[in-house]
Specification:
alpha+beta, Alpha-Beta Plaits, 2 domains, 4-stranded antiparallel sheet, 10 helices, 39% helix, globular
């Protein structure tokens, strides 16, 4: 069995105030590349993980192996099966880069084990078992559906604390909106070689230090999402969509995420906007910066490369993916 998962941009969390009775909520976009390709087969015992790409760092391979082994244990314990598995990782993308690799790895492993054992378990159920989607449901819904996604967060009686997914046991948030995203818009990713985005205890500490977010900022963000970003996707209005992306960078939790970044991130955002991108933002806790354009792909890619020249990094030109993971 081969599972190909997309990656995702996490545009913003919506409500880290909670006064109205819910917290979290997320906005995201499924993209074609980078992607994870994982081949699985059953064996008599144990878990074997091999990598086909030859230029991977030991750190990345260890992180993938740990996530795979953890997901196997959680799924086999839940299903009460003792099969062994061999996982061949044919294509990877960086961990803690803001593109959601951890969720896609965990869901791919969980889905493979479910299918190998002829079980009928939904993707949100798998996410709950393997411990993903406890803050944002974007990666879970991207795996299932693709496209442009908004989830509804969690009731405060289910999740009373402000925590990242890695520290939350809440169920994946409900899907409240899903649209096809214009496939003729280019999405340019700039992934600089700066320290990875926050994760683990560091991420937990950030949530606890900065939340709750002022209610007026949540209200401002919600206004932009409902009355600008969502209509722009439906009407394929790249100017309005780009403006909403730009506005989001300066409000709510996203503003805090950006304040905690390496100085190059804001320089990338400014330079890619100046080169004609309709909108530029940072995905999740970064360091990936993304630009939306339908006209200036080459110039924006070049300015991103030039901005990262001294510190290193790479650029990916991709598009939205309006379908979920491919299983064959």
């Amino acid at each position: 069995m081969i599972i190909e998962t997309p990656s995702r941009l996490h545009v913003t969390l919506i409500d880290l105030n909670g006064e109205i009775g819910r917290i979290d909520g997320g906005v995201g976009l499924t993209i074609e590349n980078p992607r994870l390709i994982l081949e699985t087969e059953t064996t008599d015992e144990n878990v074997e993980v091999v990598f086909e790409e030859s230029n991977l760092s030991e750190k990345l391979m260890n992180e993938y192996k740990e996530k795979i082994e953890n997901s196997v244990k959680k799924m086999t314990d839940f299903l009460k099966v003792e099969s062994g598995f061999k996982f061949t990782v044919k294509k990877t993308y960086p961990a803690h880069s803001g593109l959601g690799s951890g969720t896609q790895i965990s869901l791919a492993v969980g889905k493979a084990i479910v299918n190998h054992n002829d079980q009928d378990i939904s993707t949100p159920q798998i996410a709950k078992i393997v411990g993903r989607g406890g803050t944002s449901g974007i990666g879970v819904r991207a795996f299932d559906h693709g496209g442009f996604i908004i989830d509804g967060g969690h009731k405060v009686d289910e999740k009373p604390d402000f925590l990242p997914s890695s520290a939350s046991s809440a169920s994946p948030a409900p899907l409240i909106t899903r649209y096809d995203f214009p496939e003729d818009w280019n999405i340019i990713l700039a992934i600089p070689d700066v320290p990875a985005g926050a994760s683990g205890p560091k991420e937990v500490n950030i949530f606890q230090k900065y939340c709750p977010i002022p209610l007026r900022e949540v209200q401002e963000l919600s206004h932009v999402l409902l009355m600008k970003m969502m209509p722009a996707v439906v009407e394929k209005d790249i100017t309005a969509f780009g403006e909403s992306i730009n506005q989001i960078q300066n409000v709510g939790f996203k503003k805090i995420e950006l304040e905690l970044q390496h100085h190059l991130i804001n320089k990338l955002i400014d330079n890619m906007r100046s080169e004609g991108a309709a909108g530029v933002g940072m995905s999740s806790f970064g360091p990936t910066v993304y630009a939306i354009t339908d006209t200036e792909e080459k110039n924006i890619s070049k300015v991103a490369e030039d901005t990262m020249k001294k510190i290193g990094g790479h650029v990916i030109v991709t598009k939205a993916q309006n379908k979920g993971a491919l299983i064959k």
